[in-house]
Amino acid sequence: GTETIDEAIRTLGIGPERHVLDIGAGIGGPARYLAARAGCRVTAVELQPALHKTAVALTKRCGLARLVRHVNGDIMTVPLAPQEFDAMVSWLLFVHIPERLPLLARMRAALKPGGQVYVEDFFERGPLTESEWNDLRVQVYAQALPRLKEWGTHFRDAGFVDVEIIDM
Q1: How far apart are CA 112 and CA 18, in angstroms?
Q2: What residue spans of the chain are helical by DSSP H?
Q3: How confident is the model at residue 125 (pLDDT cuts 50, 70, 90)?
Q4: d(C-alpha 152, C-alpha 12), whole Å
Q5: Distance CA 138, CA 143 (A)
């Protein structure tokens, strides 16, 4: 829902002067909402071509193509200029990424000094049964599920400071 995107806007202070990177953008709903609600520019990166194509069409249909740029590709290889973005957002992407440190380091390099990141994702609250892991792999395409404390460690290891982890 839009409540989580509104929370990202409030938390990161996103406004018209900001350039936001949306990683794992899917069909672009959060990117369009960010642009329409906050007036910011958004670069939305999505790996899957079919989702990307749908995102581009929907963004044009909504009249937001001047604010939202869709990029089809792997976030690890798409061109990102150093210190290009004021903020980065992601919803339910990291569950698909087994090796987070290279991605987080890439994100850190693309952020301007003082840039902020807002991520909502799954974490492992306690030991999962094989059946639960299987459901995550099959239904969610989960590759890895860190514990809550590991999230902070991953971000700090990538050079982020003032890391705040909240169990929502």
Answers
A1: 11
A2: 2-12, 29-38, 49-61, 100-110, 130-135, 148-157
A3: confident
A4: 18
A5: 10
- For the record, the structure tokens of 144 come out as 């890895």
Helix axes of 100-110 and 148-157: crossing angle, nearest 10 degrees: 50
- What pLDDT does residue 16 have? 97
Rounded Cα distance, 36 and 7, in Å: 15
Contact 83, 111 (CB under 8 A): yes
Please give the residue that has the higher pLDDT: either 168 or 3.
3
The residues near 79 (Cβ < 8 Å, ≥ 6 apart) are none
Those residues with Cβ within 8 angstroms of residue 146's Cβ, 6 or more apart along the chain or in another chain = 100, 123, 124, 154
Phi, psi of 88 (to 5 degrees): -135, 145
| CB within 8 Å of 145: residues ≥ 6 apart | 95, 122, 123, 124, 128, 136
Cβ atoms of 91 and 4 closer than 8 Å: yes
Gyration radius of the chain's alpha carbons: 16
The pTM of the full predicted model, rounded to 2 decimals, is 0.90
Distance CA 67, CA 59 (A): 9
